[in-house]
Design goal:
Length: about 525
């Protein structure tokens, strides 16, 4: 016990633990959109920063203990800075520049006084060091236990298991169509957009119909969260009736597993179809696909990521955002990456018909869902806050409902342009006319509350775009209110001679933090 006590008295680890804890805490706050690997670069940078602060203090004081006692509170204040400035800005109605400046001056004053006290007044440095070490350990243990619990329940990487999907060799007397499943995240139904967003989407809908699409103009999603919705549609069943390792799915890692190794993919593989998918910032892609378009550069050389932008915004480094060059590098870069991923996915969709063989092409495009990065003509929308994929009340609490509606209206117009361009290219370049489903995984979220069905207008979130292109133009098996759970039941029955019975079109609300606590919603009529 005495040895342990001596470690806490003389140890110099507080600055480094206090540098790690905030990164893990921010990971916990955003773990639904992250794998633990996304934190590695931030952890390395934070530890490097702590080393530099400790080293600078040592050069000045030539005393390791004093250096640790300077570095520890400085790093604590450094990572607390963003939360304090946000509170000051809201409490005293200060703008971001003035609140950052005021808190920065206060931080400089506090550190200066503390350095003076260490030099002139504090006699027992060992006891003070003991308190800092204890504080750092307690904070890290508290956060570490929560991280460990999450990692244990959801797997450290959020990656699917490594197993192969065998694609059968099938010889066909006649050429068979490629199949395109294009998810436009958060794309609402035409009548919903008209009522809640005062946006007339008839030009796009008519454009689809003119190209031979069937548009299910009464369609609603089965779930209101992306992973729930897509895991269900890819398995042509409700999540409550699916199994992962013999158990009903109960965490998002399970959803990733059944999305990657879905019933639809397996049936198509048995019929000789390879799967194509595209990387994005969310986990609803298929990295185990036969062809996976992704950024293959080293994670250590990639630009500032969305998570790193959040870390910066919570720390004193956010003051650099007031310098234009730093603002672009630290804030705008993740938005630019997001923008380019959307553009490159549409561009790669246009090239997909040139692939040799028969393919099931799945593209999950995070638009018109926030963040809003395109104006209606495709020009860049600039931001001054860190990148997130926040939606519904999470987005509105930081902006406004009017801002959501305005951003959504502008972005959807350019997404319409890109979608029609991609469809035209696919139709024109396909030797055999393809099958195309273009669908929203759920609707928009200006009137969705993640914690309360009573504060939600269900019709807005459930109402989705749901359009089908069949090579022969025979849409007798479709109907206006078809939901995603039945989309591939119809396609596989029509083109692969399966015998899936259609399921009732049901609709389930669940809170973001408790995604598997389902509440069936039976009234989807918009309020009068």
């Amino acid at each position: 016990m005495k040895k342990l006590f001596a470690v806490f008295e003389r140890g110099l680890f507080a600055p480094f633990l206090l540098a790690v804890q905030p990164i893990l805490q921010l990971y916990l706050l955003n773990f639904d959109e992250l794998s633990f690997a996304d934190t590695v670069r931030a952890l390395l940078a934070s530890l490097t920063f702590a080393s530099l602060v400790f080293g600078a203090a040592y050069i000045f004081f030539r005393d390791a203990l004093k250096s640790a006692l300077i570095a520890a509170p400085f790093i604590f204040i450094f990572f607390l800075f963003g939360d304090v400035t946000d509170w000051v800005g809201k409490t005293f109605a200060l703008g971001p520049v003035r609140s950052d400046f005021a808190v920065f001056l206060a931080a400089v004053l506090i550190i200066s006084v503390w350095m003076w006290l260490l030099q002139k007044r504090v006699k027992n440095l060992v006891n003070v060091n003991l308190y800092f070490n204890l504080l750092s350990v307690l904070l890290l243990v508290n956060t570490g236990v929560q991280v460990a619990k999450h990692v244990r329940e959801n797997e450290i990487s959020y990656n699917p298991s490594a197993r192969s999907v065998m694609v059968a060799e099938v010889e066909s007397a006649a050429p068979r169509p490629d199949i395109y499943y294009i998810i436009l995240d958060g794309y609402g139904r035409q009548d919903i957009l008209q009522k809640f967003y005062e946006f007339d989407n008839s030009e796009f809908i008519n454009g689809l119909r003119e190209r031979g699409f069937y548009v299910a103009d009464e369609s609603s999603s089965n779930y209101i969260q992306t992973m729930l919705s897509l895991s269900s549609s890819f398995n042509m069943n409700y999540l409550q009736d699916l199994k992962v390792n013999g158990n009903t799915p109960d965490n998002r890692a399970d959803l990733i597993e059944i999305l990657n190794y879905s019933e639809v993919r397996n049936v198509l593989a048995q019929n000789g179809y390879k799967t194509v998918s595209f990387e994005n910032e969310y986990k609803a892609t298929i990295p185990t696909a036969d062809v996976y378009y992704e950024d293959t550069s080293s994670p250590l050389t990639q630009p500032v990521t969305a998570f790193e932008s959040i870390v910066i915004d919570h720390s004193m480094a956010r003051t650099l955002n007031h310098i234009p060059a730093f603002q672009r590098a630290l804030v705008e870069m993740p938005y630019e990456t997001h923008r380019q991923r959307i553009l490159s996915t549409f561009a790669d969709l246009e090239k997909a018909p040139s692939l040799d063989g028969e393919y099931f092409v799945y593209a999950h495009i995070i638009a018109p869902h926030p963040p809003f990065v395109f104006d209606k003509d495709g020009s860049v929308v600039h931001h001054d806050e860190p990148f997130t994929l926040f939606d519904a009340n999470y987005y509105i609490s930081e902006h406004s409902r009017g801002g959501y509606i305005g951003g959504y209206r502008r972005q959807i117009q350019y997404i319409n342009t890109l979608a029609l361009q991609a469809i035209d290219a696919i139709l024109a370049q396909s030797d055999t006319p393809p099958i195309i489903i273009i669908q929203g995984d759920h609707g928009p979220g200006a009137y969705l509350h993640w914690g309360s069905l009573e504060q939600t207008i269900p019709s807005e979130r459930f109402g989705i775009l749901n359009a089908y292109y069949f090579p022969d133009g025979d849409y007798a098996s479709l109907y206006p209110s078809i939901s995603p759970v039945n989309s591939f039941r119809v396609v596989l029955n029509r083109y692969f001679k399966t015998e899936y019975a259609l399921l009732p079109d049901l609709h389930y609300y669940s809170r973001w933090n408790v995604p598997f606590d389902f509440i069936e919603v039976t009234d989807l009529a918009p309020p009068q």
